[in-house]
Amino acid sequence: MSDCYDYEECMPLEERERRQTLQIMKMLDAGLQRSSRIRKMFTELKLDYSDIKTLSDFEKLPVTSREKLIELEMSEPPYGGLNNTDADVDRIFISPGPVYEPHLSESYHLWARAYYAAGIGKGDVVLNAFSYHMVAAGLTFHGGLRNVGATVIPSGTSSSQLQVELIRDLAVTAYTGTPSFLMAIISKAEEMGYNFKKDFKVRRACFAAEPLAPSLREKFEREYAIDTYQMYGATEVGDVSFECKEKKGWHVCEEVLVEIVDPATGKKVPPGMLGEVVVTRFNNTFFLFRFGTGDLSRLIASPCMCGRTSFRLDGIAGRVGDAVKVRGLFVAPSQLNKIKENFDGIKFQLLIGRVAHEDILIIKLELKEAVLDTKSLEEDLKRFFKEICTVRIDRLEFLKPGSLKDDDRLIVDQREWK
Ligand SMILES: [Zn+2]
After folding, report:
1. What's the 293 CA to ligand 1 centre distance in angstroms?
2. Whole-model pTM?
3. Which residues contact 289 (CB under 8 A, 6 or more apart)?
């Protein structure tokens, strides 16, 4: 049985693609009519509206990074000419840069899908510990919580002691904010003499704006009985994806088009391959097409047990600048950490070299204890590496204990491009 927020979350894939194409066409049409920047962009690219008919045609438009957006807004304040001059804007958010964002209409479902998937709704009293000051976070998460019927305490970035008092006095059932702030609140409660699990009612937490370390997630769930969920978005484009109860990837929201692209070309890569997360939010206020988040991820295209049919993002593997490209595929440090976590007592370093115009991948491996069956360890490691990074290891070399230091780099790129 599915537990979708609405029909859109569970619609057939072909229908979603049809709708996304229509939404993009509608937004392009509006952008060309209302935005000076979009008209200029089309002229510069020698493109006509009729040149874009499919989602693949959409790749003809450039990816706009945050840096580029700041540049555009500085050259033509406040919105770089990307806004609909006729739109009724109820508030303007400011994020570092500065970047000015006209807020999307109140009727948008921002973050509601995420809270719904986490099981938050009527009867919940939620502590919203995202900042309400200038930035979009506090108010937009607030709107999402209200949309699913929860009561919100706009505690923002108040001190952890005050947050503990609110949790106690108002019988808070859920938390939304960063994972590290929740941990700080729990520690403060313990310092104040409370037993967080027994004395309080917080049973759910929805996190964003910061990665959730698996060890911290386990601590929240096991020690404090808090069911945790991850949400992902960007201030420029709103909510992008969210975790369902299966907790195996983040479902892409229905109001955005997510493309995973090769940052060098801006062209899409197939599902399963790592690339930059590029987002377009369907709307009639701010015509920001193909926003490059700088985050690396890959798409999971297989169906999810929860019943939602949308593709999922496989977490965030790092930032574009931290990853290296090997045989046309990205390998990020976070992927290697994931591999390490799955094998007890190993340390390794990935060496990338080039022989006869081909990349070669060598794992230098150090075992903390003697392992009898190194052959099967080697096979397991190679298989798991291929699964996580989608590229194959060419060679595995065993090192003497003590060869790798804790601060040694995980990836060493020795290729010379002559
Ligand atoms: Zn799901």
Report:
1. 23
2. 0.85
3. 27, 28, 31, 38, 58, 61, 64, 280
